[in-house]
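tool=predict chain=A
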Amino acid sequence: MVEFFKALSEESRLRILSLLLEREMCVCEIEASLKMTQSNASRHLTALKNCGILDSFKKAQWTYYRINNCFKRDNAELWEYLQYHLRELPTYKIDLAEYQKCSGQKLCDTISPQQKH
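tool=predict ok
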């Protein structure tokens, strides 16, 4: 449980989670939506994945992230709290609008695999 709260104590990680409430996302979409560098996004995604909050999978050469179903099930009260309060982050509407702009650009089709995971 300590690891969950350590991972959740960083604003960038909360912003990532708030976007992932909506749907699974490719790492390139997360980077573009939150205006993060690849290394910064990877560091935050790794922390969230290592404590079990996120799950990842590959589609071709791309890595996609989603909120782990086991985390949701095993931590139902925390998950309920997060679903409500992540949408109250001051950055949520801006981040969501950026994501919506990015999602129409099909970033994973335009960025070479050598540039992203």
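The longest strand covers residues 54-59. Helices lie at 2-8, 11-20, 27-34, 38-50, 69-74, 76-85, 92-103, 107-110.
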